[in-house]
Design a protein that fits this description.
Helices cover 55% and strands 8% of the residues. It is mainly α.
């Protein structure tokens, strides 16, 4: 039986996540290609807020949330 980890995603968590990604994008720590692929510079993983997020959510969840954020951001470009 496969059980998924349930994590509460509050408004404050979402806002914090969006701020971290926006800041990373502005600082060149997050690169996004035209087709929606993304990568982080090594410096991103040293930012306190990024470390906090990475410690609080599983890696696959982080990747899924970043992917959704990138898609959303590209719609508004």
């Amino acid at each position: 039986m496969n059980h998924r980890l349930s994590i509460t995603w509050s408004k404050s968590h979402r806002e914090r996540f969006e701020k971290v990604l926006s800041t990373a994008l502005e600082n060149g720590q997050l690169k996004i290609t035209d087709n929606g692929n993304f990568s982080f510079a090594d410096e991103f993983y040293e930012v306190a807020e990024a470390k906090f997020l990475l410690e609080k959510m599983p890696g696959d969840m982080f990747e899924e949330k970043v992917s959704a954020w990138v898609k959303k951001a590209q719609r508004f470009d």
